[in-house]
Design brief:
Oligomer: homodimer
Strand content of chain A: under 5%
Number of helices of chain A: 6
Structural class of chain A: mainly alpha
Distance between the termini of chain A: 74 Å
Shape of chain A: elongated
Largest interface: A-B, 44 and 44 residues
Order of helices and strands of chain A: HHEEHHHH
Helix content of chain A: 55-70%
Chain lengths: 141, 141
DNA sequence: GTTGACTCGGTACCGAGGTACAGGGTGTAT
DNA sequence: ATACACCCTGTACCTCGGTACCGAGTCAAC
């Protein structure tokens, strides 16, 4: 298989495959007399492995680790599990951050909607002053 | 105030302030005889506004919009609210994606823990085959 | 034997949000 | 008058995950 075939099969573009090769995610394939890359059957599945791991949130360097772990034997399972658990924790953290943002934004939008009479837009005001508006009316008791 | 004073007051570094100026987030301040930037009192608050908006998830170009809206009058409130609501929706979407990743990862880690006897690490296997392991035992009924 | 699709390596670029450095000028305290 | 901290512009660099372009070589079909 040539690079274009692998790319088509894996749903990637050619540059990306070469990039992965440079990054060490894809082994350098054999070369034909012309210098064209000549991939075996395992190339496309390997690329799909990479895509799936990306979908789970792994970075390319983490994926490089996963690929190494895959090729070592079962002794690597705790390591793999640790990698996944760490990633999970990072995702949780990110979710927490985003949730905090969401809450703050929701409060602002809410305050803006309910106080059509206020002289200043509560959203802008909050950004100016650095505090979130209190949901109900009395903010200075 | 000179740039270093503003930077200190806002907790930013000098390069960043100059970068914001280039990006149009900070107006070009007056210059003293020496060519030094000479900031007014509003500079540091403006920088803090930017930081707060960033904390809420706004990008620098969205913040540029917010700053414009701030300076226009109250007619801009619906626009501001729309901006915030859009951002909120984007955050929600991001949270959904991350949650999906989290669920998938949790399943993998769980499967890996409960099947210490399986020949292959279920995490690696899932990445190889492109499916999430079923939580309980029977996956092929 | 020529056209057209493919491939090669190398390099540059994208966007986002900065950071760093070089080579100069300035402000001020002592 | 001389340190020393500060400022100036301009440019290059960083991470991340690619994408784009270049000029040149190659392969396959007709």
């Amino acid at each position: 298989m040539r690079i274009g075939d692998v790319a088509r099969e894996a749903g990637m573009n050619i540059q990306t495959l070469r990039y992965y090769e440079r990054r060490g995610l894809l082994a350098e394939p054999a070369r034909g007399r012309s210098g064209y890359r000549d991939y075996g059957e395992s190339a496309a599945p390997q690329v799909r492995f990479i895509k799936r791991a990306q979908d789970l949130g792994f970075s390319l360097s983490e994926i490089a680790e996963l690929l190494e772990l895959r090729d070592r034997t079962s002794r690597s399972r705790p390591t793999t599990r640790r990698l996944a658990a760490t990633k999970m924790a990072a995702i949780d953290e990110k979710i927490r951050e985003l949730t905090a943002m969401r809450v703050a934004l929701a409060q602002l939008v809410d305050a803006c909607e309910r106080s059509a009479d206020a002289p200043e837009c509560p959203i802008i005001e909050a950004l100016d002053l650095g505090r979130t508006p209190v949901a109900a009316g009395r903010s200075d008791v």
